Amino acid sequence: MTLLAEVTTLGVGGPAGDFVPVTTESELVERVQGCDRAGEALLVLGGGSNIVVADDGFGGTVLQIGTTGSSVDSVAGDRVQLTLAAGEPWDAAVERCVAEGWSGIEALAGIPGLVGATPLQNVGAYGQEIAQVATSLRALDRTTGQVQIMSSRECRFRYRGSRLKDEPDRWVVLAVTFQLSNDALSEVRFTQVADALGVAVGARVPVREVRDVVLQLRATKGMVINQGDCDTRSVGSFFLNPIVDPAHAVPDCPQFPEGDQVKLSAAWLIEQAGIHRGWRPDTNCAAAVSTKHTLAIVNLGGATAADVLHVAAAIRNRVASVHGVWLEPEPRLVGCRL
Asked: Which of 94, 114, 225, 293 has its CA at 20 to 30 Å from residue 71's CA atom?
């Protein structure tokens, strides 16, 4: 019996009915099609870094993606096209690109999980996001049983979301194609990175320097996996930055343009609601706010999914009471809800 707590970064989740690692694309497609034909409940699991599974577990089949492979094609001008299998580890892909002198994803270093998960939530950090570099992907459409190519436009990327995230039980990502710059210099787009490098926003610096600084920044926030540090036993940021109409923006809260709306800082809202690093609703709870970052909820050791959701609900209720803003969870919740 495989406990899903053992294969997720948060370390919570009950048993899988049937746990099946798959290492080839053909096997992945066949297994998914077989479960769908049989009407069997199915959970496709990547790196387990953005998911909260119920303490009861998942009674159907859990397919753990372990597919590997890549191809590189030069395109016109100074661009490089890189296609990666869904099961390739994301941070290793970033390191490879940095080593090759390709720019475009170096600020996404240190993010746990696999390549196939990155387009689902349009992974982004420090001024870069997947929507800027993903040109297409190959996915299995479970409604038709067919594999199809989906363009970046068809993915309908947005802040921490996409068409794939909106229909999580429809699409199984098999491979993603990225277009990167064949240029070992990176434009610094984020103030925190610029300050750490001692340059102005907009400066161009070696991709290696950007990656190294980003890893350092993420480590200070507990956002780089470290088995000896319970602050990294999380799903990363638990809440999305809320997007609201400008008329409903919270006074003094940091905000960023998002189309006709504004994106508010969830961390600021949480902190200004009186929730500090290390906070938990009661001393018996085995989950808590990270001691390094108020957006992360961590497993202190032996926590259950119920513990994690207890902390999350308390945070959300406090923020709603103080600021009148409703926070939405970023990870996928399986068999449970907030």
From this structure: 225
